[in-house]
């Protein structure tokens, strides 16, 4: 499952289920897995941890994780 809502250079994203993916501002982001309250997002060939409140920058994007449950992750993506 992938839900995407964008306005300008900012997008709200929800990914549910391992392997779900979405094209965000020209970049493909997928959910690698969720374990112990931490999601792992794949951006290109790199993976990044995603927990509530964590922000990472990669591939010209800034990802801010807002919610992680047992089966989905929510984050915002903006141009870096």
Protein architecture, described:
It is a single chain. The chain is mainly beta. It has one domain (2-79). Helices cover 0% and strands 71% of the residues. The chain contains no helices and 9 strands. The protein has a 5-stranded antiparallel β-sheet, with no helix packed on it. A hairpin with a 2-residue loop joins strand 1 (2-7) and strand 2. The radius of gyration is 11 Å and the shape is globular. The N and C termini lie far apart (26 Å).
Helix and strand layout, with pairings?
Elements: E1 2-7, E2 10-16, E3 21-24, E4 27-35, E5 38-43, E6 46-50, E7 55-58, E8 61-68, E9 72-79
Antiparallel strand pairs: 1-2, 2-9, 3-4, 4-5, 5-6, 7-8, 8-9
Query: Judging from the principal axes of the Cα atoms, what is the shape?
Result: globular
- Radius of gyration, in Å, reads 11 Å
Strand content: over 45%
CA distance, first residue to last residue:
26 Å
Helical segment count = 0
What kind of sheet is the major sheet? 5 strands, antiparallel
Number of strands: 9
Can you give the mean pLDDT?
95
- Find the structural class using helix and strand composition: mainly beta
The spatial strand order of the largest sheet comes to 1-2-9-8-7
What is the share of helical residues? under 10%
Order of helices and strands: EEEEEEEEE
Number of domains: 1
User: Which residue ranges are poorly predicted, with pLDDT under 50 across at least 5 consecutive positions?
Assistant: none
